[in-house]
Design brief:
By secondary structure, the chain is mainly beta. The chain has two helices and eleven strands, in the order αβββαββββββββ. The chain is elongated and about 60 Å long.
């Protein structure tokens, strides 16, 4: 088991050039589990050596709820490249026989400028995974800008596909949001300034193309006068 954890830690720490901009940021969850150390901050504390309830490193929501929502506030509007989610495993093999694969099925991830997911961009919605195929950890590419990253799952509109749990849970042991820690930059190490005439100074985190231009300019780099 120790070998598995060490490999997982290496995978998390070495595979990405962008910075984890969610680390130790303010987090919130719906339906917290009472009287237990499983608060929302556990998913952004940088700890995932023990993926069980007893380890105290995971967010765990209350039982018998039809919706589960968790979010992290990045502090300001930042450029995001991808999100990595480590779901609770109880430190046993993640396969079709695992009791928590059914809880992970059907989840969604949003990026929003407000605490309301409906105001944001839907980065991912699971519509095809099964207990045998849902990956954990999972990597979601979502090249956009936002202040909040929101995890959501629900069991409000049955019937659901075979294998889905009856209730919705958070069960998040770590959510890492990779992007640029300061606005106005792009590139794998966030060292390249966005073009001068980008609207509000924001550009695509990969190629630097502006998401909009200030008045009087046009083009992908906003370097053409109208």
């Amino acid at each position: 088991m120790l070998k598995t954890i060490l490999c997982l830690n290496f995978w998390f720490s070495s595979s990405f050039a962008y910075e984890n901009i969610a680390l130790n940021k303010l987090a919130w969850q719906q339906h917290p589990y009472p009287y237990q150390p499983w608060g929302p901050d556990r998913a952004v504390d940088g700890r995932y050596t023990n993926l069980s309830a007893a380890g105290g490193q995971c967010v765990i929501s209350d039982n018998n709820e039809k919706t589960a929502e968790w979010r992290v506030y990045l502090g300001r509007l930042l450029s995001i490249h991808h999100i990595v989610i480590q779901y609770r495993t109880e430190n046993v093999a993640w396969d079709s026989a695992h009791p928590y694969t059914s809880r992970f099925l059907g989840y969604s991830v949003y990026i929003s400028n407000t605490t309301n997911k409906e105001d944001g961009v839907l980065c991912f919605k699971d519509t095809s995974y099964t207990k045998a195929t849902v990956p954990n950890p999972t990597n979601i590419t979502c090249i956009t800008h936002g202040r909040y990253v929101i995890y959501y799952n629900n069991r409000t509109h049955p019937p659901y596909p075979d294998g889905y749990s009856m209730y919705a849970y958070n069960d998040l042991c770590e959510v890492e949001v990779y992007g640029c820690p300061a606005p106005g930059y792009y590139g794998e190490v966030c060292s390249l300034p966005c073009p001068q005439n980008c609207q509000e100074g924001h550009c695509n985190i990969v190629d630097g193309n502006c998401l909009g231009c200030v008045d009087g300019y046009r083009g992908t780099r906003c370097n053409e006068r109208k």
